[in-house]
Design a protein that fits this description.
By secondary structure, the protein is of the alpha/beta class. The chain contains 5 helices and 7 strands. The chain has helices at residues 12-24, 37-45, 66-74, 93-101, 114-129; strands at residues 5-8, 31-34, 54-57, 84-88, 106-109, 136-137, 144-145.
Length: 146
């Protein structure tokens, strides 16, 4: 069974979009959703939980923001190897720089367009998880080939 993907996102609608995109792409990994940084950290620190193969992280989340979350996990020997993709609405260069400074593997700008999210997930998930999805998006208009 493949390792889960951890989504750290406070926007419930966007979390549903991500789940739907992964389902449409036939991604076999279970999606674990944490609504804030504190809950995500609790999930990661619980030995009963499977370690994720990838973390999708919004920067502007409550309790423990994305940069603080990155600092904590990238300083933990047991967690620092997990790739973290920042998936956020912020276009600020300072946010991009801080994300990479604290160990993000990639920075992806959110949009309010589901087709754009689907396209980005079709590129991002196979690259960071090593899992080839049975469906691939062939153009930015989100046509899937299965």
């Amino acid at each position: 069974m493949p390792k889960p993907i951890l989504l750290v996102e406070d926007d419930r609608v966007y979390a549903i979009w991500v789940r739907n995109a992964l389902d449409k792409l036939n991604v076999p990994n279970k999606l674990i959703h944490a609504a804030n940084g504190k809950l995500a950290l609790e999930y990661l620190c619980d030995d009963a939980n499977a370690r994720p193969c990838l973390i999708l992280l919004d920067l502007y989340i409550p309790e423990l923001n994305g940069v603080e979350f990155l600092q904590v996990i990238k300083s933990d020997c047991a967690l620092k190897h997990i790739p973290v993709v920042v998936l956020t609405a912020s276009p600020e260069e300072a946010d991009v720089a801080m994300s990479f400074e604290f160990g993000a593997a990639e920075y992806v700008k959110k949009s309010n367009d589901y087709s754009d999210l689907l396209y980005k997930m079709s590129r991002l998930i196979p690259y960071w998880t090593g899992i080839q999805t049975p469906c691939r998006i062939v153009a930015e208009d989100s046509r899937a080939l299965c």
